[in-house]
Amino acid sequence: MEDLAYMDRQMSTEQDIKISAKNVQVYYADNHAIKDVNVDIADKTVTAFIGPSGCGKSTFLRCINRMNDTIDVCRVEGAIKIDGEDIYDKRVDPVQLRAKVGMVFQKPNPFPKSIYDNVAYGPRIHGLAKNRAELDDIVEKALRRGAIWDEVKDRLDAPGTGLSGGQQQRLCIARAVATEPQVLLMDEPCSALDPIATAQVEELIDELRQNYSVVIVTHSMQQAARVSQKTAFFHLGNLVEYDDTDKIFTNPEDERTESYISGRIG
Amino acid sequence: MPNTILILIVLALGVIGFVLGRQRAMASAGGNSRNLHSLPSYYGYNVACATTLPAMGLLILWLLVQPLIINSSVSGLVSDQASEEGASLDLIMSDVRRVADGLDTAVETGVLTEEEVEALDAEQDDIRDLLAGVGFALGSDVTPSTLEAAKSYRAMNEVGDTWKSVFVIATALTGLLVSWRMTNKDFRARNVVEQGVLAILIFAASIAILTTLGIVLSLIFNTMEFFRLYPASEFFFGLSWNPSFSGRGGGSELGILPLLWGTLYISLIALIVAVPIGLFAAIYLSEYASKPVRSVAKPLLEVLAGIPTIVYGLFALLTVGPLLVEVFGQKGFLGVDWMSGGTAVMTAGLVMGIMLIPFVSSLSDDIINAVPQSMRDGSLGLGATHSETVRQVILPAALPGIVGAILLAASRAIGETMIVVLGAGAAARLSMNPFEAMTTVTAKIVSQLTGDSDFSSPEALVAFALGITLFVITLGLNIFALYIVRKYREQYE
């Protein structure tokens, strides 16, 4: 098993670079939130962002699908490229970008609609289905990929808000997957869930890695160790260290990383 | 003794009680306030409350009951006269009270002494002249029985007032003494004062509730009186509104349907104007507008809500009405001859719609803001545009609240009066044409009660029946709206 996991990681590091950030600076009005971050994120890999609260990991995550555009005072400098294309280029439509870069949020946020309509929301907006049968297919596939199909297949018309917290979060993952993104961003997806639901979501993340590049922000170092192949440690707006997960947790180079992992700062 | 002085005496006793109670408590604790159960001033408040509250309660009760008793016993004296002359007892009683007041004034100004008042005789003295001299003009000569009634009315009042003063002051003194005796260092004055505070709060709340109850009851009784004079079926199902003021009760047609139709038609047009504009304004302000724009635009929009409705009425009469005639009237802009005068359903509806815009927009704005940010993030994160997010996620989530806001606006539209009086005319009419003059329930209540009207005729009493119908409709709408708003609130909290 150990060997297999090791081989897995070796493979992943050799894969293509999906997202590449160069000299990224983020300001909230006068507050310099992200300072000079450079990072290359590989395709078909789970990358974890860890760090103490307020270190800028969520802010950086939100830069990758330009969700920060919705905040008036936020300003982003530097270059973030997905497949070699600068997403902050004037010609890029942020709405199209977000269809390509899906996002799952900290708190499960199903729309006050039926389970079916929740999942069909993205495909309908982007016109992914030609007819009802195709849409049914997409919804079923997404719900299966979200590992929730068996639980909801008999009540697709029930409101999504009526599900339990863990089910809601998996529904939100299914909803994000339904638009067929290439990158999936997850902002502390398990922080509102109990241990069992967390285990289910973590298992799901591991499966999603086969198709997507997954970036996950987490406060739980165990979770980062469990699900990710690469880990980035943020501290006070700086990217302190970025390496294979094994290396970060066993033999970190920077002493701040070591202090954080061993619980001395944070 | 005048009531003001009586109240001042009771209050003064309360202040004395406060000082005495505090002193006694301190004395019983040996001067050390740490030995007391409560803070020293609580003992003072306790004694002050025990002194003033029962006395004040007694005073209020006495003031309510005394006139009732005196009126009923005095009206016994004049009831013979009433049946002789065929005049109503109420009128004679008001004469009696007026003569009694006049005599009071005469005594106070020194024109008469008490003995002279006793010796007055309606046959010999010209009491009408006498009272005119002190500023009391009477409608007719004073009959002997009226004078006698007035005299006994005065006498009874005097006796009642004396006893009132005695009892009120005695109650205050008893309260002071009892609570002062009870004061010692282990007495739980703090808890008792807490009860007193509770009593004051309950009193305030019950005044509001009792007033509402009183208004509803007066509406109900007068409506029942009206239905005795006029058949209820004709009122509710009659197709024509045609009150006559010349013959008393004869020949009036008092059907509510034309008025109800006018009310609903005007309200409908008002809502058709107000709902889309108000809702779109709310969406702009809550979703799109930047902070500086919002901080200026929202108060400006809400200024509309502060304009008195009579000003909207003027606006309807002088600006909107003539403008509509220029467009829809004969030789108008469109060349159609739909509108003959400026006052019409359309005029009132449009102006009322403008009045309701801030109402709809500011309520909807609050409701849209209450939709959690995570809904917007979720939708935007899936690649939806801003307006798709608003249309497909935010509005459905806010819909129950928005419906509640619209229903509240509707109940305001139904109750609106001044705009209708000035903008829609006074003709009660059942018609589909929105460019014709019509009128509403509220406008007709005003016109039935203004001017010379006899309050016992069906033409005046119909106002109460109209009022209670309106009350039931708006109450129903409000309850429904609150129910919907509350149901919505539970979803996110």
- Enumerate the strands of the largest sheet of chain A in spatial order, edge to edge or round the barrel: 6-7-8-3-9-10
Largest inter-chain contact set: A-B, 28 and 21 residues
Order of neighbouring strands in the sheet with most strands of chain B: 1-2
Radius of gyration of chain A: 18 Å
CATH architecture of the largest domain in chain B: Orthogonal Bundle
CATH class of chain A: Alpha Beta
* End-to-end CA span of chain B: 59 Å
Membrane topology (chain B): Multi-pass membrane protein
Transmembrane segments (chain B): 43-65, 197-221, 264-285, 297-318, 338-360, 393-414, 460-485
Main location (chain B): membrane
Protein name (chain B): Phosphate transport system permease protein
Task: Characterise the protein shown here.
The complex is a heterodimer of chains A (266) and B (493). With 266 residues, chain A is an alpha/beta fold. Chain A has one domain (2-261): P-loop containing nucleotide triphosphate hydrolases (Rossmann fold), CATH 3.40.50.300. Chain A has helices at residues 2-14, 57-64, 94-100, 115-126, 132-145, 149-152, 165-178, 195-208, 221-227, 245-250, 255-261, and strands at 17-28, 31-42, 46-50, 74-82, 85-86, 101-104, 183-187, 213-217, 230-235, 238-244. In chain A, a hairpin with a 2-residue loop joins strand 1 (17-28) and strand 2 (31-42). Chain B folds into 2 domains: 3-187, no CATH class; 241-492, MetI-like fold.
